[in-house]
Design goal:
Layout (H helix, E strand, L loop, with lengths): L10 H34 L4 H12 L2 H12 L2
Length: 76
């Protein structure tokens, strides 16, 4: 999308966009560290993180996709 000022850069807007992206990247890194900590906690409690990840993937699936997966597994 072309800017209304025909190629001129709005410095304040660009800086704002970059700073917001940097903040979101920091937040993402912090969340990833928190998730890793929870997996370590689960492992310490005797749970296998591999299976926890599988359950999380399954829970993310659309119910129709999950049904299809089971139907395919049963050859229906």
């Amino acid at each position: 999308m072309k800017n209304a000022n025909h190629g001129a850069i709005d410095n304040a807007q660009l800086i704002s966009i970059i700073e917001r992206i940097e903040k979101l990247n920091e937040d993402t890194a912090a969340i990833a560290a928190d998730i890793k900590e929870v997996y370590n906690e689960a492992k310490s409690a005797g749970y296998d993180p591999k299976y926890i990840r599988q359950m999380i993937r399954l829970r993310k699936l659309d119910p129709d996709e999950l049904t299809k997966m089971y139907r395919d597994a049963l050859g229906l």
